[in-house]
Structures are given as structure tokens and as C-alpha cells.
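Predict fold of Thiamine-phosphate synthase; 218 aa.
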Amino acid sequence: MLVTDRALCGIRGVGETVRRAVDGGAGTVQLRDKRAGAGELLRQAEQIAGAIDGRAAFVINDRLDVVLAARERGIPVDGVHLGQGDVDVVRARDALGPAAVVGLTAHTPAHLAALAALPRGTVDYLGVGVIRPTSTKRDHPPAIGVAGFARFAAAAPVPCVAIGGVRAADAGALRRAGAAGLAVVSAVCAAQDPERAARELLAAWRNAGAGHANGAGR
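Predicted 3D structure, encoded as C-alpha cells:
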């Protein structure tokens, strides 16, 4: 999962960064821009949807209202990723329907307890972290590391995606820890070649899976 950062994308721009990352194998793109208003987010959403061109899933961070507005304009958006302080996930599911993607940030036992109380099918996946300190989200919670992620993922009833300072070298450890995927920001947005960076992440993930399968078969 590529999580966008307009500043890190620089003069290349978000749309072109997304296009190259999807060329390299990014399977999901999350539009995240905490400082942008609804109009700017819609503009970026249109650019990103065009760059994806149906080749990857597309979700928008935080802003259910922008997801709904994008859909009204015919911009293909698959769903929303919500933080703990954002719109209620049940409301988001009701507004977007059963086929939409609804993700939720979670990292504490209290978050898991709240998730267990929700109707089944409300949340599709959890974004769990941060794995290590990162400058792309200044208000992030304390880093949990791979061991903390493993404990959380083992207790979670839905797939968990690792986020926060994740690098290609982390793929093996995180996959063995139960990660369903990797979410990255600077590893791709700040890369000189986003396509190559995405390919390296995907290759590391696949190699980790192959190694795990081979080890299990011994």
C-alpha cells in the first residue's frame, strides 16, 4: 500500500508518483494529505484515479465526505481509511455499502476491544504501527516494533497492514509476524525511482512468503 505525501513527492507530483508506483506493483493507494481542503483532495483524487487506471485499489484517508463527493463526480474510489478520531466506521460502512473498502488505524488493546463490538464486516483491515519512528506522521503513537506488531496481529480478527518506517528489509520479519501487507510513505514517495522502489518492496514481500512456505514444508 502506497500512502501518498505531497511534500515528499516533490516536483514529480502525486499523480506521477502513484503511476510509477503502480507500474512497480503497488496494489493499493491511499490518498493522505492532512493539510489539504476538500477541493484540493478532490483534485488529487482525480489525478490518482487516472494514474491508477483500475490497476490498484484506491482509498482516501480520513475524509468520508471526500470519498462520497468523488463518487458523485464519477471518480472511482474504493473506500476510506479512518483514524480513531475520524468518522465512525459504522457510519462509513453504511454510507459506502458492503462492497467498499473500510480500513481503520489501530494499535492498542482498547482499539481491539472496540473492533470486537462492531457488526461483523464493518472493517476490512487494520493499519497497525508505527513499526519504528517516522517523520511522515509527527503525531504518531510510540513505535511498537515487529514484536509488538506480531502480538497485535495475533489478537486481531481482521488482516493487519504494517505501517510506520517500513522498509523492504522489513518484509520478511513483518510477514512472519502476521502482516497481511506493508504500507509505506517515504520508501516510495521520496525515492528517486518510485517504480523501482515499489518493485523492490514487492519482491521482498514475495520472497519472504516463498521462504516462509519453504520453511513450513521442511
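The chain has one domain: 2-212.
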